[in-house]
Amino acid sequence: MTNSLLQRLIEMCCRHEFTWPHAGIHGTAYQACLLCGAVYSYDCSTMQRTGRLVTPPDAGRQPLAEGQPASD
Fold first, then answer.
1. How far apart are CA 69 and CA 47, in angstroms?
2. Cα–Cα distances in Å, from 55 out to 11, 12, 30, 43, 45?
3. Per-residue pLDDT tens for 10-65?
4. Could you give the CA distance from residue 12 to residue 48 in angstroms, rounded to a whole number?
5. Burial (CB count <10 Å: 0-12, 13-18, 19+), residue 72
6. 12 φ, ψ to 5°?
7. Which helix (H) or strand (E) holds 4?
8. 8 Å CB contact between 66 and 49
9. What residues pair up with 43 in beta bridges, in sequence order?
C-alpha cells in the first residue's frame, strides 16, 4: 500500500517526458514516461494520449486500461 501511494505521489509531481508511441502486444499504442514510468494509452489517429493505463502485478505483461478485466 505504501509503495503504491508513494509511486502515485511521484507520478503526480512528475513533469512527464514521454517516449515515442509504441505498439503493445494486442496492437494498442501506448507511451511511457521516462522519469516516473507511468504508462498512457495513445490514439494514433488523433496523435494524442487518451488515458492512463494501469500496470498489472505481473510486469511482464502489457498494461491494462482502467476498468478492463485481466485475461487470466
1. 26
2. 13, 16, 12, 18, 24
3. 667 778 888 888 887 777 899 988 888 888 899 988 999 888 887 654 455 555 56
4. 19
5. exposed
6. -70, -35
7. helix 2-13
8. no
9. 48
Q: Please give the grid coordinates belonging to residue 56.
A: 498489472
Is the pTM value of this prediction over 0.70?
A: no
Q: Which three cell numbers stand for residue 43?
A: 490514439
The three cell numbers of residue 19 are: 517516449
As given in the structure block, the three cell numbers for residue 7 are 509511486
H helices then E strands: how many in the chain? 1, 5
**Cα dihedral sign for 8, 48, 16, 13?**
negative
| Residue 30: exposure state from Cβ atoms within 10 A (0-12, 13-18, ≥19) | buried
Residue with cell 478485466: 69
The grid coordinates listed for 58 are 505481473
